[in-house]
Design brief:
Low-confidence stretches: none
CATH class of the largest domain: Alpha Beta
Radius of gyration: 21 Å
Helix content: 25-40%
CATH topology of the largest domain: Aspartate Aminotransferase, domain 2
Number of domains: 2
Structural class: alpha/beta
Strand order of the largest sheet: 1-9-8-5-4-2-3
Strand content: 5-15%
Distance between the termini: 31 Å
């Protein structure tokens, strides 16, 4: 029988090459602000079609610095989605601005372009468009609206490395993009993130801000020089270490292999669950490719969040790692207290969120694993239906 250790919710794909690269850095004695980070940045920039990349210690830090570099602060508004991990919206609050949420399209799970324009006010300073679960759908529409209102797009592509829309790489669709490299992402650095842009000014500001506000032009150029301890602005310690970057370099070199593995697992799930009367599968819009950050299904309309939660609990008792994905940001306790949100404010996002189930998803899942997960899901749904009476 399968066990939870065999089928966790996610598991990174680490080989001896990553271990050797990390060991080499440890032996080098250069653990921060070194050549391995520069190599990692160049690999991500090249893959995503950007001139500049700035490594940071998390995707959250990357979004924070991107907002700061764009001059967004108190009194400003940034439009974004309520259906995402909370780290999409938190950086907006961190810089003193206000997140303005737009309800989602029930098919793509991204912000509904038909509702986006109505959220723009004189205080709107940017659109933070999230590629939910790595899906870049609607970015063409977002760009048209942004151009019309002369607003920049901040691309939260933390879940979308390797994804494309109409041949364009995610990470190149906005003024600035931010990737995340948490262990459940397509590639991992353990913890880490990357800011990508073709705007030299933004890149230089982010380099300064990530390293205690040191002079622009890059930390390496000033390391050991007389102005190393000079600080031009309030900054942060948001750097990505050489150890983390070494992991990222090898993972980036394996990216196509990793994407192919994830596609294989996604196709196994789709074949097994296609036509299931109680399940809505992920949607991949025409013109887009996804690199499968997670595999999230939904129960059909009519199921309650309590019923969904019982199905998840039942699967976990049968040693299948799964969970809800995501709870709506605006209904998180902190957001309700701070900004006064309440149930019903964004009904589509809430309805979707109440019925999502993230299934185990990692590169090494076998057909046997996927069959076991899907049979267990079907069993738990049937058990829940029987309990309905």
């Amino acid at each position: 029988m399968a066990s939870l250790n065999e089928i966790p919710l996610s598991r990174p794909d680490i080989t001896s090459a990553e271990i050797d690269a990390v060991t080499a850095v440890l032996r080098s004695g250069r653990l921060s602000i070194g050549p391995v980070l520069e190599q990692f940045e160049k690999l991500v920039a090249a893959r995503t079609g950007n001139e500049f990349a700035v490594g940071v210690n998390s995707g959250t830090s990357g979004l924070h610095l991107a907002l700061m570099a764009m001059g967004i602060g108190p009194g400003d508004e940034v439009i974004t989605t309520p259906f995402s991990f909370i780290a999409s919206a938190n950086p907006i609050l961190m810089v003193g601005a206000t997140p303005v949420f737009v309800d989602i399209c029930p098919k793509t799970l991204n912000m509904d372009p038909a509702k986006l324009e109505g959220a723009i006010t004189p205080r709107t300073k940017a659109i933070m468009a999230v590629e939910t679960f790595g899906n870049p759908a609607h970015f063409d529409a977002y760009e048209q609206i942004a151009r019309k209102h002369e607003l920049p797009i901040i691309e939260d592509c933390c879940e979308a490395l390797g994804c494309t829309i109409n041949g364009r790489q995610c990470g190149s669709l906005g003024r600035v993009g931010v990737f995340g490299f948490y262990p459940n992402k397509q590639i991992t650095t353990g913890e880490g993130g990357m800011i990508v842009t073709n705007d030299r000014r933004i890149a230089e500001l982010c380099r300064s801000l990530r390293s205690q506000g040191r002079p622009t032009g890059g930390e390496v150029a000033t390391l050991g020089s007389q102005n190393w301890l000079q600080h031009e602005r309030l900054g942060y310690n948001f750097r990505l270490s050489e150890v983390n970057a070494a992991l990222g370099v090898v993972q980036m070199k394996r990216l196509d292999e990793i994407i192919a593995k994830r596609q294989r697992v996604a196709e196994m799930y789709i074949r097994h669950l296609a036509g299931h009367p109680e399940i809505i599968l992920p949607n991949v819009a025409d013109g887009t490719t996804v690199s499968w950050f997670v595999f999230v299904v939904r129960l059909v309309t009519g199921y309650t969040s309590a019923e969904r939660d019982r199905i998840i609990t039942g699967m976990q008792r049968h040693e299948v790692g799964c969970r809800d994905y995501f709870p709506c940001i605006h209904l998180q306790p902190f957001y309700r207290r701070l900004l006064g949100f309440k149930p019903g404010d964004f009904p589509i996002a809430e309805a979707v969120s109440s019925r999502t189930i993230a299934l185990p998803f990692s590169n090494d899942l076998t057909q046997r694993d996927v069959d076991f997960v899907c049979r267990t899901l079907d069993l738990m749904i049937k058990r829940e239906n029987l309990s309905r009476g």
